[in-house]
Design brief:
With 697 residues, this protein is of the alpha+beta class. The protein is built from 18 helices and 21 strands. One of its GO terms (molecular function) is symporter activity.
């Protein structure tokens, strides 16, 4: 097996790294569009789209067990990667065909899409534990340092593929039009093509690979050994001092070698029990942290949410060489011994600190958020369009608002309880009082519009949109006091504004300065309006009035603009990525190095299962607890610090093993046993000869 430029790195790992890059491009490129595909193409609602998305993600991290079983027990890693990659390619092709509008009905599109996703999950999950372990197999026993660095390179290839795919595939979907709309078929087709490339590249290196043959049905043998040991111990009434471990009770049926190997695997799997908590925090980058970003200010540099999500992959590419070439050597020079478990424990601390930083950001972000009213209540603000001060008193609550000025910006929403589903209040204007009663719903927010009428004043209740826009852009609506309807164009968004104190629906507009907005009346007159800055995350009501014969604007802020810049998220991304470098890359290498030769894929699958269970923790806490976001962030940080303490104690008592050395010991023992057996056989033959002679004499 050749080496790279005189180094101890085998040439075969080049094919494996390129294969992983293409496969990860394929996976993340497809996944980046999945939710939009469900929403916009299949026309599913958000709840169903989210459920299917997470079900697919979970399946991708549960299927590694199947791949590990096939590789270690039946086909070997090489054939398993090839066969399941073919399944992977078929899944991508089926998924791409399902995105072609001219192919059958909506039901057929759904059937093809779901079938494709199941095949993709089997493919990506099945090869996931095999590729990393197969790469580790390429190194000679004495080249452990090179093997450790290989896992860093391997991890960089994962993130490089992820980074490029999340840039390219959304462009293919949105900027390329086909079949009269967004080109999902092309956007899914390119990842399919990359998976074909991944398969071809992997096969191209087949003549250079160092292959470890499968050891038979090892997983079944392991389970049988464990069950036999438990049963045997349970059925024995007396303890046997010679059997110090519960697995030793399987000695009557199974070899000592298998028992010792199972002990090695179980010790590592027990060590993995606390690890899902790290992934519970890490995987919230694509959910909670992205939602946090939508409520932040993106001024100066217009940052898309897609680019925020790419930050982790970009930082990985920067951090991996920095840690390997600078930080780890410097720490070693300081006399601090670096072990895999210490690095993983430190990675947990960094992840907890990242969520501490996210908590501080969230505390400031929520200051611009309007919380929904509690059960049985609604939110209320007053917009005074009567030319004079008015006062408002709630008839069923202890609330009185005095001297509300004409066109004054409401200070804040007030919480009012609902009486039989109604808001009831009394309005005073110029010494006269008027009563208003309007139907309302709990948890919602309303504006009471007080305006002049033939009977002095009237009022109407208008529902407000207080939830910040999910894409971070501002929301805008118009209230027209003029007797004539107008049409207003804000950017590329058109508003038809009815006359006589009617209010339009909220619409999303792009953030920016709007100083020359075209306003055209139904009579044909046109003018330009100055709306000023419409900022990130805000909701505005623009009131159209007449001043000096012209239409004038008065802008009311219903929901404040995002005033925390998105740059404040950078520290939390830096911390979580530093934690990932120390935790995830080290965990990959640790899972390989501590596994017996015939169980390396199984232990890799066990490592990947910690990711799946981490997502389960997020669902339990996020969906079940119902906490405020900053409290939830703080809870996760605290839980991980607690897990860090537990893991550190467990790591302290863990004894590292070298499976290769164990293998040598077993081989030596086996040779010694064979020699002893041969010696005993010869001695017996000699004794028989002597006995025969004496008998004849």
């Amino acid at each position: 097996m050749g080496k790279i430029f005189g180094t101890n790195y085998p040439v075969s790992i080049c094919f494996i790294v390129v294969n992983e890059f293409c496969e990860r491009f394929s996976y993340y490129g497809m996944k980046a569009l999945l939710t939009l595909y469900f929403l916009n193409y299949l026309k599913w609602d958000k709840d169903l789209s989210t459920a299917i998305y997470h079900a697919f993600s979970s399946l991708c991290y549960f299927t590694p067990i199947l791949g590990a079983f096939i590789a270690d027990s039946w086909l070997g890693k090489f054939k398993t990667i090839i066969y399941l990659s073919i399944v992977y390619v078929i899944g991508h092709v089926v998924k791409s065909v399902g995105a072609i509008p001219t192919v059958g009905s909506t039901d057929l599109h759904i059937a093809l899409s779901m079938s494709g996703l199941i095949l993709i999950a089997l493919g990506t999950g099945g090869i996931k534990p095999c590729v990393a372990a197969f790469g580790g197999d390429q190194f000679d026993e004495e080249h452990t340092t090179e093997r450790q660095k290989f896992f860093s390179i391997f991890y960089m290839s994962i993130n490089a593929g992820s980074l490029l795919s999340t840039v390219i595939t959304p462009i293919l979907r949105g900027d390329v039009q086909c079949f009269g709309g967004d080109c999902y078929a092309l956007a899914f087709g390119v990842p399919a093509a990359l998976m074909v490339v991944a398969l071809v590249v992997f096969i191209a290196g087949s003549g250079m690979y160092k292959r470890t043959p499968p050891q038979g049905n090892i997983l079944w043998e392991v389970c049988s050994c464990i069950v036999f040991a438990i049963k045997n111990r349970w059925n024995r009434s007396k303890n046997d001092p010679s059997r110090k471990h519960w697995l030793d009770w399987a000695e009557e049926k199974y070899s000592m070698r298998l028992i010792q190997e199972i002990k090695m695997v179980i010790r590592v799997l027990v060590l993995y029990i606390p690890l899902p908590m790290f992934w519970a925090l890490f995987d919230q980058q694509g959910s909670r942290w992205t939602l946090q970003a939508t409520r932040m200010n993106m001024a100066f540099v217009r940052v898309c949410l897609r680019e925020v999500m790419m930050l982790n992959a970009l930082l990985i590419l920067i951090f991996v060489p920095i840690f390997d070439l600078i930080i780890y050597p410097l720490v070693t020079l300081c006399g601090i011994k670096i072990t895999p478990l210490r690095k993983m424990a430190t990675g947990m601390v960094f992840a907890a600190l990242a969520f501490g930083a996210a908590t501080l950001v969230e505390v400031n972000v929520v200051k611009t958020v309007v919380n929904p009213a509690p059960a049985g209540s609604s939110l209320l603000q007053v917009v005074n369009l009567a030319e004079g001060d008015v006062s408002l008193k709630a008839l069923d609550a202890d609330l009185s608002l005095e001297s509300i000025q004409y066109l004054a910006d409401p200070p804040q929403y007030e919480i009012l309880p609902l009486s039989n589903g109604q808001l009831k209040f009394q309005i005073t204007f110029n010494g006269s009082t008027f009563q208003c009663s309007e139907d309302a719903q709990q948890h919602k927010a309303y504006s009471v519009i007080v305006y002049p009428d033939t009977d002095a004043i009237s009022c109407k209740l208008v529902e407000d949109h207080i939830k910040k826009n999910e894409d971070g852009n501002p929301l805008l609506r118009f209230l027209n006091t003029q007797p004539e309807a107008v049409n207003i164009t804000v950017g590329d968004v058109n508003f038809y504004v009815p006359p006589s104190y009617d209010v339009t629906l909220n619409k999303t507009v792009a953030r920016g300065e709007y100083t020359d907005v075209i306003c055209a009346s139904e009579s044909g007159n046109s003018s330009k309006l100055n709306l000023g800055l419409l900022d990130f995350g805000a909701s505005y009501t623009v009131i159209l009035t007449e001043e000096s014969g012209k239409i004038a604007t008065h802008k009311i802020v219903d929901v404040k603009a995002n005033n925390v810049h998105i740059a404040y998220q950078i520290p939390q991304y830096v911390l979580i990525t530093a934690g990932e470098v120390m935790f995830s890359i080290t965990g990959l290498e640790f899972s390989y190095s501590q596994a017996p030769a015939n169980m390396k894929s199984v232990l890799q699958a066990g490592w990947l299962l910690t990711v799946a269970f981490g997502n389960v923790i997020v669902l339990i806490v996020a969906e079940g607890a119902g906490l405020e976001q900053w409290i939830e962030f703080l809870l996760f940080a605290s839980l991980l610090l607690g897990v860090f303490i537990i893991f550190s104690i467990m790591a302290h008592f863990y004894t590292y093993v070298d499976p290769e050395e164990v293998e040598k010991i077993y081989l030596e023992n086996s040779v010694r046993e064979e020699d002893d057996s041969d010696l005993k056989k010869k001695n017996n033959e000699m004794e028989l000869k002597k006995t025969g002679k004496s008998t004849r004499m």
